[in-house]
Amino acid sequence: MTDPKPPTLWQMLHSVLAAAFGVQSNKNRERDFTHGKPVHFIALGIAFTVVFALLLFGVVQLVLHLALP
Question: What's the pTM?
């Protein structure tokens, strides 16, 4: 608990991405739970999920467009 200020946007984004891949470090997890606001992580998680789903949809559409005559 050496860092009393809340996590920055980049730190929260890093935490959301690490959580998506399941590789969050214990130090960052403790920082997030002690100094972060849940609503910020929820909003970033939803935004990441939407962007990820749209990216997958776009890739599938591109592959189908290129594969079908």
Answer: 0.80
